[in-house]
Design goal:
Blueprint lengths: L1 H15 L5 H7 L4 H29 L2 H20 L3 H29 L2 H15 L1 H16 L2 H22 L14 H12 L2 H31 L4 H25 L5 H25 L3 H14 L4 H10 L6 H19 L2 H4 L4 H28 L7
Helix pairs in contact: 1-5, 1-6, 1-7, 1-8, 2-3, 3-5, 3-10, 3-15, 4-5, 4-8, 5-15, 6-11, 6-14, 7-11, 10-14, 10-15, 10-17, 11-13, 12-13, 12-14, 12-17
C-alpha cells in the first residue's frame, strides 16, 4: 500500500516540491508568471498523453515493467531540468516528465483494480489518499528547504534521486499483479477497441470526467497560490509551505472519513454530497476574493474547505468507473488519469490568463466545480437506466 501510494504521489511531489520556486524561476529565466505556470500545466498535459499510451501497455505487458521504464526516464528528464537554459526548454522537459510520470500513476490504479472492486476499491483508494496527501504536506516544505541553500534547479536533483530510489524499490519488492493469462494481446486495433468500448459507456465517461474537473479545482489552486499568497499577500517561502501543508491535512482528513463511510454509504451518494459541498465552499471563496471580506484568514478558510472535499471526489468516482471495466483496468485507469491531467492542464492556465490574482483563482475553481455538478446531473438519468437505483 505504501509503495502504491508513493508511486501515485510521485506526480504530485513533482509539482508540489517545485511550487515555492515558481517566483524564482520567473526571475531567473526572465519570463512571466503565466509562462512559469506552464511548467506546471505542461506537466499535466504530458501526463494526460502518457497515460493514454502507457495504460494499454500495462494491460499487454503487465504493471511492473512500465513503472520501471517510466521511473528511469523520469530520472533522466529531472537531470536535464537541472541544466536547461530557457523557459521554453523547461516547459518542454516538464511535458516529458509528466508523460513518464504517468507510468507510476496508471499502473498503481490498475494494480488496485486487479485486486479489489466496488466499495472495497473505494476504501483502498481513500486509504491511498493518506499517502498521496503527504505530497502537499511535505513537498513544499522540502522545496522551501532546498531553496534555503540552493537554487530552484536543486529541486530537480532531489526529484531525480526520488525516482531512482522508487525504481530500485519496485524492482526489489513490487510483485506483478496481472498474470500472463489475463493480459490483453493485440496491437493498435485492440488498443483502439478498448478505448472505443470505454468511451461508449456513458456511466464510465461521466465518472472519469468528474475527477478531472476536481483535479482542475486543485491545480488552479496549485498554480495560482504561489503568486496569490507570496506576491499578493507577501508571505515567505516558509509561510507559504506551512499554509500549503495545512490544506493537505484537509485532503487527508476527508479521505479517511470517506474510507470509513464507504462501508455504509454508497460511493455515488458520497460523490454527490462532496461535489455539492465543494461548489458551496467555492462560491464562498469567490465572494471573499471579489469583495476582500474576511481578509487573508477568510480566504484561507474557504480554500481549506474547498480543497478538503477533493479527498472524497476522486476515490469514489474512480472506484465506480474502474469497477465497470476490470478486464481492461489499465486502459480504464489511463482514461481516468488522462481526463484528470488533461482537463486540469487545460483549465488551470486560465488562472494566469485572467490575471493570476485571488479573484482569477477563485473564478476558475468555481467554474470547474459547477461543470462537475452539470456532468453529474446530466449523467444521473443514465445511472438510473443502468440499474444503479440502490446507489443513487
Amino acid at each position: 500500500m505504501l509503495l502504491l501510494g508513493a508511486l501515485t504521489a510521485l506526480p504530485a511531489f513533482t509539482v508540489d516540491m517545485y511550487l515555492p520556486a515558481l517566483p524564482d524561476v520567473t526571475s531567473d529565466l526572465a519570463t512571466t508568471p503565466a509562462l512559469a505556470q506552464l511548467t506546471v500545466s505542461g506537466m499535466l498535459i504530458g501526463g494526460a498523453v502518457g497515460q493514454l499510451v502507457i495504460g494499454p501497455l500495462s494491460d499487454r505487458y503487465g504493471r511492473r515493467a512500465p513503472v520501471v521504464v517510466g521511473l528511469v526516464l523520469q530520472v533522466l528528464t529531472s537531470l536535464a531540468c537541472i541544466v536547461v537554459p530557457s523557459i521554453g526548454g523547461l516547459v518542454a522537459l516538464r511535458v516529458l516528465q509528466g508523460f513518464f510520470n504517468a507510468a507510476s500513476q496508471v499502473s498503481a490504479l490498475a494494480v488496485i483494480r486487479d485486486r479489489f472492486t466496488g466499495s472495497e476499491a473505494a476504501r483502498i483508494l481513500s486509504r491511498l489518499m493518506l499517502v498521496i496527501g503527504l505530497a502537499p504536506l511535505l513537498a513544499p516544505t522540502i522545496g522551501s528547504a532546498v531553496l534555503g541553500f540552493g537554487t530552484w534547479r536543486w529541486v530537480f536533483g532531489l526529484l531525480a534521486i526520488m525516482g531512482a530510489v522508487l525504481a530500485a524499490i519496485v524492482l526489489r519488492w513490487m510483485p506483478e499483479s496481472l498474470p500472463a493469462e489475463r493480459r490483453r494481446p493485440g496491437g493498435t486495433r485492440s488498443v483502439l477497441g478498448g478505448y472505443r468500448s470505454l468511451l461508449r459507456d456513458r456511466h464510465f465517461v461521466a465518472l472519469a470526467v468528474i475527477p478531472g474537473l476536481g483535479q482542475a479545482v486543485l491545480m488552479s489552486y496549485v498554480v495560482g497560490s504561489p503568486f496569490v499568497l507570496q506576491e499578493g499577500y507577501g508571505l515567505t517561502h516558509t509561510q507559504f509551505s506551512l499554509l500549503f501543508a495545512a490544506n493537505g491535512i484537509g485532503l487527508v482528513v476527508s479521505a479517511q472519513v470517506n474510507a470509513s463511510l464507504v462501508r455504509r454509504v454508497a460511493p455515488i451518494r458520497l460523490l454527490r454530497t462532496a461535489i455539492v459541498l465543494q461548489a458551496f465552499f467555492a462560491l464562498v471563496l469567490f465572494v471573499i476574493a471579489l469583495t476582500g471580506g474576511g481578509g487573508i484568514l477568510g480566504l484561507l478558510a474557504a480554500l481549506w474547505l474547498v480543497l478538503a472535499m477533493q479527498g472524497m471526489i476522486p476515490a469514489n468516482a474512480s472506484a465506480l468507473a474502474l469497477s465497470r471495466h476490470g478486464e481492461i483496468a489499465g486502459t480504464a485507469a489511463a482514461v481516468i488519469g488522462a481526463f484528470q491531467s488533461g482537463i486540469a492542464g487545460s483549465i488551470s492556465p486560465l488562472v494566469g490568463a485572467l490575471g493570476g490574482d485571488a479573484v482569477a483563482m477563485a473564478t476558475v475553481m468555481l467554474g470547474a466545480v459547477l461543470l462537475a455538478i452539470l456532468v453529474l446531473a446530466t449523467a444521473t438519468p443514465a445511472f438510473r437506466r443502468g440499474g444503479w437505483h440502490a446507489e443513487l
